[in-house]
């Protein structure tokens, strides 16, 4: 029987094995069907820094950190791989009902970056971390509020994962389409995209957007709502930076109505916006924070649900045989995740990547702003740190969104140039019109220039 090592140097064999047997994420496979016009699935084989190579040898500059905003420290970090190797050779796994050395030490280091929080619950994906948070909220409701305070509020355009419960809290209609019926008890609040707010702007719009959340709270009844779950900056929904005054008001609403504030940092965490976590840009003190992606920068699977001691304490009652958090994540017990995460955190500190994210993010924003002055199709540039978006419009006056087909043609043009960019797609009907940029936090001005030059040429060719 052939082994991986027998066949990995045969590109055609790998491509055909993929074509015949792999079901890719978020992909329509009809174009891969055998025939005279069949496309080959793209197989990525190697990465160093911000560069990756496919199986044909073509080189790309990756401006989306692994396609889904994950490889924050870039590719090819030998010290992370060695840490994972050493950890799994010593002890690859132990169920999370007990501890491990990497798990204990990483939790300690992580909490150092999160003043006001104290407890780390390990899992293996962002969707799962969010599920843990909602289960905590529901159990608190049953144990302390007679089961009444169980609703979870979530925001239009935000995304919290791909499980059925996560889709129940998903504000992207096209991602949710055909997967219902959904779990009850999840209630949507309006988005806070200032660019689509009409005449209101700045703090006035921030106040209004937060007031719309309060309207939902009062309509549903504060005593029925357990948590408000929000991304600090809406990610796949269009890189939406909340308006001035919004977050301060949201924090105040949660405190007034005794609602737990759950911040989903799966995308924004670990320096993406220029601070360790996106919520720290706004001086927030959340009750629950979930994270994945950048935790181990893609070198191992790991996620975490982090809480305050006050949340944790509500599960400490040995007089109630069902009072503890009765949950498990099998692969939350793998030691590879926290071992990798310890090295990623150390690299982020040693190389001062938060500062680089801030500095290079400002440079990326300024270069995109320059493009906007040349291309009327760019309606707005927005973001924080190395997390930037450019909303594309067919008409800058009416702000009519550029059709999704043209947006994807720009992405394809950049790909042909050897630059991988992202774009919102098949998520919000009529509003899949934002280009997305999240290069690794090691990005240089030269990398940014290459990204922006590719976008410049692509918009010129596709839109004119």
From TrEMBL:
Signal peptide: none annotated. Gene3D superfamilies: Aspartate Aminotransferase, domain 1, Type I PLP-dependent aspartate aminotransferase-like (Major domain). The keyword DNA-binding does not apply. The keyword Transport does not apply. GO terms for molecular function: transaminase activity. Its cofactor is pyridoxal 5'-phosphate. Keywords: Aminotransferase, Pyridoxal phosphate, Transferase. CDD domains: OAT_like (cd00610). Coiled coil: none annotated. Belongs to the class-III pyridoxal-phosphate-dependent aminotransferase family. This is Aspartate aminotransferase family protein.
């Amino acid at each position: 029987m052939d082994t991986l090592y027998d066949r990995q140097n045969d590109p055609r064999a790998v491509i055909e094995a993929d074509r015949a047997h792999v079901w890719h994420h978020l992909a329509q496979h009809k174009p891969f069907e055998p025939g005279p016009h069949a496309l080959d699935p793209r197989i990525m084989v190697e990465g160093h820094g911000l560069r990756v190579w496919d199986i044909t040898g073509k080189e790309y500059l990756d401006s989306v950190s692994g396609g889904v905003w994950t490889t924050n420290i870039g590719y090819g970090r030998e010290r992370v791989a060695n840490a994972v190797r050493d950890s799994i050779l010593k002890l690859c796994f132990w169920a999370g009902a007990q501890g491990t050395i990497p798990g204990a030490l990483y939790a300690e280091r992580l909490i150092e970056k999160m003043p006001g929080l104290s407890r780390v619950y390990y899992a293996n994906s962002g969707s799962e971390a969010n599920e843990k948070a909602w289960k905590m909220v529901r159990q608190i409701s049953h144990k302390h509020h007679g089961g009444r305070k169980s609703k979870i509020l979530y925001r239009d355009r935000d995304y919290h994962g791909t499980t059925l419960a996560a889709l129940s809290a998903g504000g992207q209609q096209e991602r949710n389409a055909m997967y219902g019926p959904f779990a009850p008890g999840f209630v949507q609040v309006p988005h806070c995209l200032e660019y689509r707010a009409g005449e209101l702007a700045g703090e006035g719009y921030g106040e209004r957007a937060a007031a719309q959340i309060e309207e939902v709270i009062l309509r549903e009844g504060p005593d029925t709502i357990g948590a408000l779950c929000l991304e600090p900056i809406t990610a796949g929904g269009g890189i939406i930076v909340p308006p001035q005054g919004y977050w301060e008001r949201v924090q105040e609403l949660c405190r007034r109505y005794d609602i737990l504030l759950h911040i989903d940092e799966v995308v924004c965490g670990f320096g993406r916006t220029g601070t360790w976590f996106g919520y720290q840009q706004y001086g927030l003190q959340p009750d629950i924070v979930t994270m994945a992606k950048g935790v181990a920068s893609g070198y191992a699977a790991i996620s975490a649900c982090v809480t305050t001691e006050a949340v944790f304490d509500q599960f400490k009652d040995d007089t109630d045989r069902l009072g503890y958090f009765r949950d498990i994540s099998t692969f939350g017990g793998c030691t590879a995740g926290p071992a990798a995460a310890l090295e990623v955190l150390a690299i982020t500190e040693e190389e001062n990547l938060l500062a680089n994210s801030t500095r290079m993010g400002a440079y990326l924003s300024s270069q995109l702003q320059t493009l906007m002055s040349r291309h009327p199709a760019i309606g707005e540039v927005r973001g924080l740190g190395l997390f930037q978006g450019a909303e594309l419009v067919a008409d800058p006056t009416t702000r009519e969104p550029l059709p999704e087909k043209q947006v994807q043609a720009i992405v394809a043009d950049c790909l042909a140039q050897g630059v991988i960019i992202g774009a919102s797609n098949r998520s919000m009907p009529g509003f899949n019109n934002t280009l997305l940029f999240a290069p690794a936090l090691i990005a240089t001005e030269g990398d940014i220039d290459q990204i922006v030059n590719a976008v410049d040429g692509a918009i010129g060719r596709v839109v004119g």
